[in-house]
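A reminder from the course coordinator: this example appears on the midterm review sheet, so study it carefully.

Given structure:
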């Protein structure tokens, strides 16, 4: 199997849409049944689609941990692909409120992703760096 740039782009778009909606079916559709998800490369993975979906829908242990609509923005794009593997780059920005006028945290992201024959993720690893805010003058 060789996943195309367009297929990775579509998967990344669906990822952001699932994050925005917290729709169970949308999150499930992203991942293979036996997928592994690492929030940091050194973490033990969250194993299995059901566990990944549970984590997404209950971040920090409950639905109260979900990112509030309008308080974040994200953009990711395919950087390189090889067979069933892809690397994506992008940015995630968190704001104090939905006006998005007060940036709280800004991350640069690299994701490594592996896909099955159906285009579902089997392995996902996040690497990110937080941008430091400039010192006040």
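Designed residues:
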């Amino acid at each position: 199997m060789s996943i195309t740039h367009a297929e990775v782009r579509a998967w990344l778009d669906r990822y952001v849409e699932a994050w925005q909606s917290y729709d169970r079916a949308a999150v499930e559709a992203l991942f293979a049944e036996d997928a592994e998800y690492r929030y940091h490369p050194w973490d033990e993975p969250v194993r299995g689609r059901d566990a990944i979906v549970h984590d997404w829908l209950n971040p920090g242990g409950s639905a109260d941990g979900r990112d509030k609509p309008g308080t974040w923005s994200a953009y990711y794009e395919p950087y390189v692909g090889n067979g069933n593997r892809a690397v994506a780059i992008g940015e995630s920005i968190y704001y104090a409120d939905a006006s998005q006028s007060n940036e709280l945290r800004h991350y640069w992201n690299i994701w490594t992703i592996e896909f099955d024959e159906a285009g579902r993720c089997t392995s996902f690893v996040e690497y990110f760096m937080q941008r430091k805010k400039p010192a006040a003058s």
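The first strand starts at residue 31 and ends at 38. The mean pLDDT is 93.
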